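Notebook, p. 212. Picked up where the previous page left off. The plan for this session was modest: take the two constructs that came back from the sequencing core last week, fold each one, and keep the raw output in the notebook itself so nobody has to go hunting through shared drives later. Recording the first one now, exactly as returned: residue sequence, then the structure token string.
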Amino acid sequence: MEEYLILMRLDLLTKEAQPSPEQLQVYMQWYQDWVGSIAARNQFVGGKGLSTEGRVLKPGQLMTDGPFVEIKESLAGFITIKAKDFDDAVAIAKECPILKGDGNSVEVRKVVSVRT
């Protein structure tokens, strides 16, 4: 099994796009059920949510506040999973409840080792 990163992006900026507290509870339950199903198959490695604060660094020592570039979609969190191949990882990512939201997206990236 190899490790893959599932990056979850959604609109964290537009006030109208934010769920009500009741909707958020439903979404979190869907997310927990999804992660639980991955863990039940012994394919869950870990994951974290991300705050809305951050800094964007660009060449020339340019730095801006916020993790947001020129798009509304922001990186909201990630999980790391074990999968037998890229297709297996994508199949798991396709079940991510984030994809139920308009404009949201999920990106799958294979984790590779970097030698130091």
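Okay, moving on. Second construct, recorded in the same format:
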Amino acid sequence: MQAAASFADGFINLFRAGGNTFMALVTGIIPMLVVLITAVNALIMIIGEERVEGFAKLMGKNIITRYTILPLLSVFFLTNPMCYTFGKFLPEKYKPAYYDAAVSFVHPILGLFPHANPGELFVYMGIATGVQALGYSLGSLAIRYFLAGLVVILIRGIVTERITAILMKREA
């Protein structure tokens, strides 16, 4: 009888812990994300969509800005998955590399701007919890993750652009 009672307590405590975690998300992360998304949308409206798009076209003309600034701005302003639409401002030969750079940046930006990819925030939070438990600062983790992400997307963009050029030459 005691074993059955312990099992029942453990069973209900499992769901109680799940409910507490859910409530922490509802009262903590979700309101912050809603405010961030609202603020970014307001910023786009203040700047003007045409100006944002014009700036995106300008960034696409240089190889460095094409695979660093353009993915950064698109992920920040449009979030995942809308950020991939900024590729429409690029010539066809650059689109695969832009997509590779943008999709590679939706995680590194999360430490500083969690609104950019809220569906996968749990990945960063898992890492952040471990770093916090070791007594390290989350701010330095977020900055390093962000900067490493910029370097990685630049490399990926350049390499993918070269691979695309080789494949397009074979097709011609």
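Notes on construct two before I forget. The first helix runs from residue 2 to 47.
Flagging for discussion at group meeting.
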